[in-house]
Fold each of these.
Amino acid sequence: MNGGFVTSLDRLVSAAGGLTLERDCPLSRLTSIGTGGVARLLVKAEKVNALCELVKILEPPFFIMGSGTNLLLSDRPFEGTVVRLGGALGRIRQAGEVLSAGAAASLGRLVHRAIEQDFAGFEELSGVPGSVGGAAAMNAGAHSVALGDLVEKLVMVDLSGARRVFSHSELTPGYRSSLAPVPGVITSLSFRRGVKRGNPLVQRRRARQLSEGRKLKHPWRARTFGSTFKNPPGMIAARLIDQAGLKGTVIGGARVSPVHANFIENHNGAASLDILELIKLVRDRVRRESGVTLEPEVRLVGFTAGELGELASCAVNVIEKKTTERLKT
Ligand SMILES: Cc1cc2nc3c(=O)[nH]c(=O)nc-3n(C[C@H](O)[C@H](O)[C@H](O)COP(=O)(O)OP(=O)(O)OC[C@H]3O[C@@H](n4cnc5c(N)ncnc54)[C@H](O)[C@@H]3O)c2cc1C
């Protein structure tokens, strides 16, 4: 890592309020799957201005981490900077018809608040873990609703360190790909109470049903990152994996969940490499059995091209150079 950058970072952290720096931080304690190596530098930004100053000096490689519920990080040290958000960037506020949430807020807290305040549609996202920023970067969704359907405005810091605001029509919603039209750090989202108002009683009931349904269908006691693969158009990945006879398949400490075939569990002290090997095995077998090539939904970070094999084309997540072009996500 460039010594000049580390000195500038140290200086910025002591001069600017709202930034904290940790060295050699074990990322395994920050991911839901419970694996990952150490981050040489982990910076937490708690204010937008401080984040802008940080991004201005930030040298690649770096990546942005939310609550770590959709990440498979290499076991090796990440020789760069991990950026996380917290503090004031985790606030949820309402002003009249507009509800805004900082990217560090939990999606669950936003869903709860939105239902209480008659915002329709949020109940469908009930039970999806993670942060608001991560949900925007993934266009997280469940049933027939994705977060991008509900967002009115997205605020972010682009890779030059400038604050940018995008309205609904400028967003780039896709299936589990970022809503942000340019690369950078999403800092907040806002939502407007629609013409179609929700009914909190009905919404609360629906939210409860969905959360209970998840407990029945998902291995919710196990350490996982949710769905491993995206559903191919018109098909269900879990069904294809199940039909290939892969439920319960084990590599090292990783196992295809016996409860839900599209979930991989950290069953017994798995390393990330065990999980990556299992992902590749599942992909190969499903292709052999059904002719369908599954694409990972989980974001793969820090693996070598050799480790990734043909998954290399799906794994662009770390920012290796500062560019204003949209990265493949
Ligand atoms: C048990 C379980 C169930 C799940 N069910 C669902 C489901 O039903 N539907 C669904 O869509 N997902 C589901 N997930 C996956 C996961 O919860 C979502 O993808 C979630 O939105 C990820 O949020 P996060 O904060 O954990 O992001 P992370 O996992 O930390 O990061 C995910 C991606 O977002 C990027 N990112 C994070 N924050 C920011 C930011 N502020 N600015 C820019 N980029 C950012 C990261 O760089 C990374 O590329 C499930 C996961 C688990 C463990």
Amino acid sequence: MGRSKLVLSVCCVCWKAWNGDPTLAPETDPWEALDTLVERQHLAPQDYELSHGYCPRCTLTLLQAFRAQSAERTAPFAQTDVSLPQPPAAGAGGGKAPPSMH
Ligand SMILES: [Zn+2]
């Protein structure tokens, strides 16, 4: 019976690993360079396996890039604001011109 492997979540964009350390101060970034993490926790290669994902920072970056891209792509179909009810025109019955001072 070997001890179970530690699964490290590694961001596949910036290669930072989530150290999953609950004792860290909240202001500490729980994502650190994989090398640093492995070294600090004295992990041997057989002690852990990698699970690829995205760190929050890269998720945000990718999400923004994706939104910008999809906004461009779906522009003809994304005009949802067109169907919004229009507010009633002010001064119903009158002309479009604002009252002029004489
Ligand atoms: Zn990342």
